[in-house]
Structure formats: structure tokens, C-alpha cells
């Protein structure tokens, strides 16, 4: 049941041109960004259709769901649909975009095309598009976003895409270096695209990220402990922070080894990838005593009050976790409780992952779920 070439061709995606953007309520400067998505979209479409033609319906469904989720995310990043309200002091979104962002859950999966060996090597990064979604809602262009547990710089990339400035600290030297490198790579990719496309661009039309050309002082990424972030911020004369978004280590959960079927951890070991963030004492992921970990989280986030603007929002991305004994630890709820002296807990978003490997843990006797959602807790400096 193979498709002929002529059938296949009906999925060929043409290039998008600038004129059509406006009539579809898309930002004029999103052209390059949208065009970059075409090869991956084309590949996923073809591969989904191939699965369908071979009656592998579940694999086809998975691929088409991925396409649908990515398109939704692109729409929210690129659409204009009206104007930003002149009294909007929180973000640059139009009313419709604002409304869409208020839904309390979203599905985001990392795109295979975005995953470099360094990203693969980090045990727990989030997709830049997830951070970009929240950064667009909780800050305006040109404002300062802070990620104290920066990892390999997903937040920095999101800031680049959304034209925010970024301050971050990361305790693992390799990760911090890659986070810096990531911005340099994005920068040079953008410059190359700009010069390659310069003939076809009208005067003054910019690619999605051009505002950051040669403005590396807008990315302050440090190898350092989050406990010293306030000092680093002061010494570096960084302006007050408008929005904090971060995902700290989920307690010591990376050290948990599960027996039985092949776990993600076992597969990482076999592939020679990092199993844990580091062996450093300062790494919060290496604190075994739960209350000590919570105490340090409280202290660290309390110190950030000094560098946040009044009423700034703080987002902590975290999960409830299940150590080896199978008893759930309500880590997300406990962190919410720890932060409540310094911040008001405003809301929770639920980030769902739809493309993750499903492990068959308790089968056929015990209930063990695959936890493919995270809490994005929204606090506000009071
Ligand atoms: C969940 S990961 C964050 C990943 C990041 N969101 C990304 O997408 O790359 C937590 C990170 O916190 C770092 N970390 C642990 N303890 C730290 C500390 N005391 N100060 C700064 N970073 C720390 C770890 O090395 C790890 O990269």
C-alpha cells in the first residue's frame, strides 16, 4: 500500500511570502522564523503519511499530534490579531493572544531538529518554545528575564527569540559554556540569514531576532551558584529583573535508579550521556535530605527578592516526584509552601509532554503511571 510520487507531492509546502503574512494576521517580521519551520514540517507530514499508508495508525497519530501542537505554538508566537492595549503594562500581546495564554495547560514537546548533542547530554532541559510562551506573557520586549538554574540555556534561547534580555547562572561549567555558545550560534545563524536574504527584504524589514545583532551585553550568562546570583547581578550592574523563569533540580530524583525494564536512566548510561548534573556539593540535585533541599530552595528564592522589580512574576517549573519506594513526594506543593513567605502563589499552568517514551513500569500487577506533566507555578513578588 505505497503512495505514488504524485500523491506524495501534494504535501509539498511552498515558501511563504511576506505579502501573505498580513492577510493572515501574522507578524511581518515572522517570515524567516516561519520559513525555517518548513523542512521539519514537510518531513513530519511525509513521515506521518508513510506510517498511515503502512497502517501504523498510532505512529501516524503521534506525528500528526506533534505537527498540530507545533502549529499552535507557532500561531501564538507569530500572530498579531489586533493591537496591544495602550494600558497593557505586563506584555506586548494583543487581547486575543492574551486570552489564549490564559488557558491553564499546554502541550509542548521539544523538536527533534532543535536537539544538538549538548542538549541531549543534559538530563533535564525544557524546550525553548515552552519558556518563550511564558516569557511573552510575563514580560515585554527589551525587559530582563532571569534563570538562576540556567542549564544549557533554553531560557536564553527563548529570550533571543522573543527579544528579551537574559541573566542566568549555572553551576556546571560545561552547561554554562554551552548556554553562552548557543546564543553565539543563534546570533551567527541570524546574521547569515539576514545577509543571504538581504536582496529579498524590503528596507527596514528585519528577521525575527535581528534586534539582538551584536548586542551580547543583553545576555549575561554566568558559570556560578544560584546562591551567589544576587552578588553577580550587583557586580555586573544588570538592571532589575522583570520576570524570573526557572526549573531547579527536582530534588535528587536523577539519582534514583529503577530496576526491571529499561529505564530512561539506563538508556542514558548506555549512550554515555550525563546521568546527573554534577558531583558538586553546591548542586541542589545532590542534596539527599529532603527538608535540607527545601530549606535551600526557600533561602535561594528569598534572596532573589532583592533583584526583582516590585510585583514581578516568578515561574518555577517542577514536578511531584516518585522515588524508588513508589510513594509520591509532593515536591511541587512543598515548593509552593516554602515560597509563600516571600511570594504570593498566583496560579499554576500544567505543561504536558505528548511525545515521551511510555515505560511499562508496574505491568501487569501494580499501578505506576508515566508522569508526563510538570507544574509551572506562578508566584508574584509581594
Ligand atoms: C532542571 S535543570 C534546568 C535546565 C534548564 N531549564 C535547561 O533547559 O537547560 C537544573 C539545572 O540546575 C543546575 N544547578 C543545580 N544546582 C545549582 C546551583 N546551586 N546553582 C546554579 N545551578 C544549579 C543543574 O546543573 C541543572 O543544569
CATH topology of the largest domain: Rossmann fold
The main pleated sheet reads as: 8 strands, mixed
Instruction: State the oligomer.
Output: single chain
At the first level of CATH, what is the class of the largest domain?
Answer: Alpha Beta
Compute the separation of the termini in Å: 63 Å
DSSP helical segment count: 13
Report the portion of residues in β strands.
5-15%
- Count the strands? 8
Helix/strand order, N-terminal first: HHHHHEHHEHEHEHEHHEHEE
Gyration radius from CA atoms, angstroms: 22 Å
Mean pLDDT: 87
Give the class from helix and strand content and strand pairing.
alpha/beta
Strand numbers in spatial order across the main sheet: 1-7-8-6-5-2-3-4
Under CATH, the homologous superfamily of the largest domain reads Vaccinia Virus protein VP39
| Helical content class | 25-40%
Q: What would you say this structure looks like, in words?
A:
The chain is of the alpha/beta class. The protein has two domains: 1-80; 88-381, Rossmann fold, CATH 3.40.50.150. The chain has 13 helices and eight strands. It has helices spanning 5-9, 18-23, 31-53, 57-78, 95-101, 117-121, 128-138, 154-162, 173-197, 229-235, 264-270, 290-303, 331-339; strands spanning 105-107, 144-147, 165-170, 219-223, 241-246, 308-318, 343-352, 373-381. β3 (165-170), α9 and β4 (219-223) form a beta-alpha-beta unit. α3 runs antiparallel to α4, α7 (128-138) packs across α8 (154-162) and α8 packs parallel to α9 (173-197). It is globular, with a radius of gyration of 22 Å. The N and C termini lie far apart (63 Å). The protein binds S-adenosylmethionine (SAM). Residues 122, 124-126, 149, 151-152, 154, 169-172, 175, 225-227, 247-249, 277-278, 282-285 line the site of S-adenosylmethionine (SAM).
